[in-house]
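G., the chain you wanted modeled:
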Amino acid sequence: MANIRRKKPIFTMAVAGSLIAATAAQTAFAQTQNARQEALRVAPHPGMMPHAGRMFPGTSLTGVPGFPLPTIHTQQAYAPDGDFTARWTRADALQIKAHSNPSVSAGQNSLPSQLIMPGIPADFPTINPDVWVWDTWTLIDKHADQFSYNGWEVIFCLTADKNAGYGFDDRHTHARIGFFYRRAGIRADQRPANGGWIYGGHLIPEGAQEQVFKGTAYTITAEWSGSMRLLDPRDNKVSLFYTDMAFNRDASGQDITPAQAVITQSLGQIHADFNHVWFTGFTTHTPLLRPDGVLYQNGAQNPYYNFRDPFTFEDPNHPGVNYMVFEGNTAGQRGVANCTAEDLGYRPNDPHAETVQQVLDSGAYYQKAAIGLAVAEDSSLSKWKFLTPLISANCVNDQTERPQMYIKNGKYYIFTISHRTTYAAGVDGPDGVYGFVGNGIRSDFQPMNYGSGLVLGNPTDLNQAAGTDYDANPLQNPRAFQSYSHYVMPGGLVESFIDTVENRRGGTLSPTVKLGIRADASAVDLRYGNGGLGGYGDIPANRADINVSAFIQDLISQNVSIGPNTTGQVNAFVNTNK
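Predicted structure as tokens:
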């Protein structure tokens, strides 16, 4: 028995020694792995094509010395009605700063040039002398193809009256949806410098959208962004999805109660003749979605909540089912410090990781951007149900505006826009387009380009304070706010509006640019247009809705005499350059 008692502590010590040795070996292995990871990280080469000038260097996920590695995202698809939400993490967003050059001269661009929109000339033309123009969208079908109608291209824009006595930065509470049109099929180099767009006026009859707010307190209403769906490419019926806004403010412009944001539908018809385009309808406005405070933050939880910008589409993998993406915020009370390790997204043992407490101490928990999803419950697209958010950006950014689903080569891309000034403390990035790719509508979306999410930014020096578009930092790049509200079109074309170029305010359409998109990376196509800048407002249709009988009926409605040659004239008009 004595021998047995003597062996037990010896055995225990041996086991303990083995554990200590194993732990030491694991620690040494982890340190070796970290050292290898650091050695593999690629030093940034801003201002030039890195990685020996390859077109899509953004496919690299090996990181940059001194910065954390991006979060691992599988791109795996999940059921659209499931509860999985992808995260744009702090580890992801920090890749933007990682690939920014810390030593450029003040006022230059510090970001990789293949991800930056070329500089817009300061002598840009204006689309219209009487209205400011900003968020812009096109006439699309369920697949997001862009349609001309009976020989005319049509776009829809947020507009505000330049002559009403308020300034450009006060336009949002006065926003009305306007439309522009031009002849289809004419090359950009054959159009006027401003794109040749003709202003058609307001889309919605005066005051019609106020019916949504009946019985509530408000002092002014506005019409904010959305999308326009051509319900049948052989017909003229259209469905407008937009954000109906109501503000309740005192005489000094301060909110008495939080603004009301309601995603709304209104139906109408498009018409055209030889000379112009016009619309009828849009008199009935159906509220579709209000933020519920359960999946999407509402005004009771945060007076500064975001809820807007509906974009509808049909998923080819779910024929006949219509979905909507929109901007939202993660539900929950504003100011509650509830960031998680999953929101941070750091890999185990990453030496450059922040702790949750460090992030909370920085105040980053006020930023709770989300890209929402809803599904239509009827064929008229007038009833919708919330689904779990597709992407959250808690502790990263507070705005993911104007999201859209872009499907290419079996991949599902979500493109959205955001501001430098809406990033959380400790992370940074330019005003512009951000993109995420997965294998389905609901996926573990991977942020594009180095795992950062940045797709198309304005020229920006991240070493200098941002300033604002209306109060510029003289040390910042003078084009850091040159364009915004980008919308990715078929073929990778991107339109936007001009905000500020060299202290000149815009309110007009930007030059179109083109993105090359491949897998999880993108690059600005500098062969497009002039050094990467196409025509101002070059927004071409890639499909045509031709309806000769409707054209003739529209001629009759305009009191045009119909003769034996009318059908031939109409055919020649609508089929020219289609």
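The mean pLDDT is 91.

Shout if anything looks off.
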